[in-house]
């Protein structure tokens, strides 16, 4: 079994492709006898299609994509598994300077306080409705994305109905700053560096961040075609080990500058390293992340690469909430089974690290870093609160879905 | 009107390629072909045109936006699926290899859509071939310029005639089993590093 495995993986130019990029560029893939080729793509649809026909064996994917495929919500729905997450957090909501100023006039905007900025936004939404001005328009990268769901969660918990009070449109991540500058949206939710790019060019300001809306929340996953995974379990295990070590490298402070320089290259993000590093070292939060217990983007610590089935079920609950799919026990089960902690654990147990013992957890229950049951050694999970204080218990999915429904009506 | 050929919407920012596809479809008797370059406002256009088939290049970054439009249009009973038949793996592969993707109104019969997809695939392939040839031609032009500069350097530094300079380059290339353009490039690079100024900046 000394042969090298060729793996072609698609990615979208985003800072959270870091783990895949580091695995290739820093030798972690090679150590596991994997010749990892990374192919930059222009759309999530391309990634999905090229996985489907076998061009790619693996890809940088939006966490809800495998779930949407399993539920038959997308064209070319093929069985795609998520045996690993590619980190936690990493997105922000950026708004135009005009909207930022308007919000600021209502409430001082603090990106770590989504409740306050959400309240300001609700007031502006109300004023627009009362004066007959057009609805605010926000961009997200995909209907089945963490971005769409966290933006909607923030709006809904702030008393803004995402489908009625504002308009949500789809645009590709690298285009967001231009779309904002051209005035075609008033704000957007996207991964880095596409928030910092708009801030640097003077087109926008960051209103809030994903990790303040829901701390330690899931974002991208490693997506693999189920058939390929079934036929190549050993190669997949080596890929997961390579990515795990790469994630550890990415998370290490001493490597942040090097990682930013690699990602900045024309074949990856093609943006200045000085912008790329903001998400990696957390400086995008203006140095206040550590004090507030919020990591903007975490590639490794606190089981950041573990594919929690409770994350899959939360995304599913939001698909139901926003009318993308009907809630049935069979659909919920199909969603849960896209995330494969069993494959993750089998691949990584030989490394002897501390892996979560459970497949799911109650989300939003940890107010501070807390130890959890682990396969070996000790494992501490970071705080994971939702900004509105809600808790998602995957064993009480029906109740959660039921309690979220009334939020579709305005409290404004 | 059941024999009417399906209407086709081609979304392509590349005007030349769009024209090539349109011409192919018209030759095949498709009168109802619309080209859209700018995807802004495409939802409205789809609602008005009600295309049976939508063709879009894979390099277009707005595929996700387009698919979202289809999802929303489910509400007005116009479900759109990709390709004619998901089990038709060969044509799917051929399409993706050619760099094109197609969306088809649900229920449209496979034999009515297959020729459109085949046409799009062959025209996309033809266009890529054309592009490659152009690229090669550009490469050839570039290497001729480099050879000229290498010749100039040899003429100045070794006092050779133009023919002799070229002969030296060719002989070196043959001895080293390299292309003459590559030898010229190394020479020009070396000359630049040695501070040779030939008055040219290209």
TrEMBL record, chain A:
InterPro entries documented for this protein: NrtA/CpmA_ABC-bd_dom
Cell inner membrane keyword on record: yes
Pfam hit, one: NMT1_2
Keyword Oxidoreductase applies: no
SUPFAM superfamilies listed in its UniProt record: Periplasmic binding protein-like II (SSF53850)
Superkingdom per UniProt: Bacteria
UniProt keyword annotations, A-Z: ATP-binding, Cell inner membrane, Cell membrane, Membrane, Nucleotide-binding, Transport
Single GO molecular function: ATP binding
GO cellular component, one term: endomembrane system
Protein name as annotated: NitT/TauT family transport system ATP-binding protein
Organism: Bauldia litoralis
Upper classification of the organism: Bacteria, Pseudomonadati, Pseudomonadota, Alphaproteobacteria, Hyphomicrobiales
Automatic annotation (TrEMBL), chain B:
PROSITE patterns: ANTAR, RESPONSE_REGULATORY
Single GO BP term: phosphorelay signal transduction system
One Pfam family, short name: ANTAR
Record-annotated ANTAR domain positions: 127-188
Entry's Gene Ontology molecular function annotations: RNA binding
Domain Response regulatory: 7-121
SMART domains per the UniProt record, alphabetical: ANTAR, REC
Highest taxon listed in the record's lineage: Bacteria
Protein's UniProt name: Response regulator receiver and ANTAR domain protein
Source organism (scientific name): Bauldia litoralis
